[in-house]
Structures are given as structure tokens and as C-alpha cells.
Design goal:
Helix content is about 30%, strand content about 40%. It has 2 helices and 5 strands, in the order E-H-E-E-E-E-H.
Length: about 140
């Protein structure tokens, strides 16, 4: 990677950003989270994370109004810049989506399946994120 020290600008680290940080550290990048900010720490780039959220949307119901199908989404929005403010990656959104059929009689099994689907989406987003960060050739 073109940088060796990255500051993640996010007040409360999420599971996805912690997973990203672990991958970056495994690639030899020093990751910093703590305040007061990049201007007080020797970093090469700043990762501004504007959004990291999970969504659960009902897309199908039975005639009795029971949920039949869900769409699960993981959405991350970020940008990468130098501490001086030069934009390296503009505001970018990564989205993963999975469908989940649902029946009231299998609630416990579906909760486990939902957790696995979110984990899969998170891994896919981190892979996409790492590819975008690795594509930076110079600061």
C-alpha cells in the first residue's frame, strides 16, 4: 500500500471497521482510532467513515400479513484523504444485499441464518474496501 499509517475517523468503531482495521494491520498498516485527531498524530491518510449500517427490509408478506421474505443490507460510506485534506478516494458507498426467506415456525434457525448472512456481507465489504485502499498508488 502507498501508506503505512492510517487514522480511522469514526467516533464509535463498528464491527465492520474493526474487521477492516485487523486486515490493514495484517498488511503492515498502523491503524489509529483515538482522539483528538490526525492533526496530532503522525498518519499518512485519514479514513472518514460517514455510515456503517445494517438494514432489514420486509419485501414479502403472506395474505395474513406475516413476513415471508426479507432483504438484508450492509451499507458503508467512506472517503480517504490526506491529513492536509487532499482527497484520495471520493465519497464512496459499498453495499451488500442478501435475501432471506422467513417463516414464523423457524424463527431461531432464521436468526442464525441472518447472522451468517450479515457476516458474509461484512467480509465482502471489507474485501472491497481493502481493494480500493490498495489501489492508492501515491499520496
Amino acid at each position: 500500500m502507498a501508506f503505512s499509517r492510517l487514522w480511522i475517523n469514526l467516533p464509535n468503531p463498528t464491527e465492520t471497521t474493526r474487521h477492516l482495521a485487523a486486515h490493514l494491520q495484517g498488511s503492515g498498516v498502523a491503524v489509529q482510532w483515538s482522539a483528538p485527531g490526525p492533526q496530532d498524530a503522525p498518519v499518512d491518510v485519514v479514513l472518514d467513515v460517514a455510515q456503517d449500517q445494517r438494514e432489514r427490509v420486509v419485501v414479502g408478506t403472506t395474505s395474513a400479513g406475516q413476513v415471508r421474505e426479507l432483504v438484508l443490507r450492509q451499507r458503508v460510506r467512506f472517503r480517504l484523504r490526506t491529513p492536509g485534506g487532499r482527497e484520495l478516494i471520493p465519497d464512496t458507498e459499498l453495499v451488500q444485499e442478501r435475501e432471506l426467506s422467513f417463516t414464523e415456525t423457524q424463527v431461531l434457525g432464521k436468526e442464525t441464518e441472518e447472522a451468517l448472512l450479515y457476516s458474509d456481507m461484512q467480509q465482502a465489504i471489507v474485501r472491497q474496501w481493502m481493494a480500493r485502499l490498495a489501489a492508492i498508488r501515491e499520496l
